[in-house]
Write a structure and sequence with these properties.
By secondary structure, the chain is α+β, with helices and mostly antiparallel strands. Helices cover 35% and strands 30% of the residues. Helix 1 crosses helix 2 and helix 3 runs antiparallel to helix 4.
Length: 205
């Protein structure tokens, strides 16, 4: 009986260790996986206005795990990849806070990337076995920082889009607040030459 108990404990410890190693590997791989360079015109449902092309694509579970190492859909978020291609002569300012989802007359603002970041960071589990208390907290800090960096690298953020350039980034929405109907993405960009705003809207695919 004691022998079986010891074997069970050893098996459980080894299983936890393998799970932890696999989890860390996936997190590192996600951090190293960059969003590919794409042009909006290559996406279904893209729109062109003022020489600016906009496309929007919602990430599924597999894509979430590839780019963020976690199933954000299962956590109640809808990550939307925004792709913008500038074939105009204008210099544009793009800001992640100027994007929203629309459904009829309803509009839905994105959540701050800190919201899914904190949710994931709070769920990080690091077993105590074979590590000191200092190593335990260092390990947690490293993994939490990697998640923070990853989300901010891939977020739509704040950037200047020069002529003949494309940019892409992720905006995060609370999927629990979204209706069960077709959604569109509306993005407002600023023309830096004339200090005016241009609005584009494309269907979400």
């Amino acid at each position: 009986m004691i022998y079986r108990l010891i074997c069970f404990i050893i098996f459980a410890v080894l299983s936890c260790a393998n799970t932890l190693e696999a989890r860390e590997f996936v997190e590192i791989r996600a951090l190293q996986t960059r969003l590919p360079y794409e042009e909006a015109t290559s996406f279904k449902g893209n729109v062109v206005k003022h020489g600016i092309s906009l496309a929007a694509h919602s990430l599924n579970k597999e894509e979430c795990e590839k780019f963020f190492s976690y199933d954000l859909n299962g956590d109640g978020y809808l990550p939307v990849k925004i792709v913008l291609t500038n074939t105009s002569p204008l210099r544009l300012l793009v800001h992640g806070s100027d994007v929203e989802l629309t459904a009829g007359k309803q509009t839905f603002a994105p959540v701050s990337s800190s919201e899914p970041i904190l949710k994931i960071q709070d769920d990080i589990y690091i077993p105590f076995f074979n590590v000191s208390k200092e190593e335990y907290y260092n390990e947690g800090a490293i993994r939490k920082n990697a998640i923070f960096v990853n989300f901010n690298q891939k977020g739509l953020g704040y950037r200047i889009l020069e002529p003949n350039q494309s940019v892409s980034g992720i905006a995060f929405f609370n999927s629990k607040k979204l209706p069960e109907e077709d959604l569109s993405v509306r993005l407002r960009v600023q023309d830096l030459g004339r200090v005016r705003y241009l609005s584009l809207e494309a269907g979400l695919h």
